[in-house]
Input
Amino acid sequence: LFNNLDCDEGFRIYKKLAEKGHVDGMVATGIVLVEGLGIEQAPEKGISWLRQADELGSAQATFELGSAYYNGLDG
Output
């Protein structure tokens, strides 16, 4: 997931990309936060990133949001 980097560094990279408007960075940040991959889980923040990416037309964000909603998360 983090290209052989440690989880904290990988998450920092994804979040930095997301904050600069990179859609795939937003999706990755959202997934990591929703699932708590190597960091403390923060579903509300993750859903927020996924919604932003969805609004920018990301099909993966739409899928991830649907999966989250299906599993009972609503941010």
The chain has a mean pLDDT of 91. The two ends are 23 Å apart (CA to CA). The helical segments are 7-19, 23-35, 43-55, 59-70. The chain has four helices and no strands.
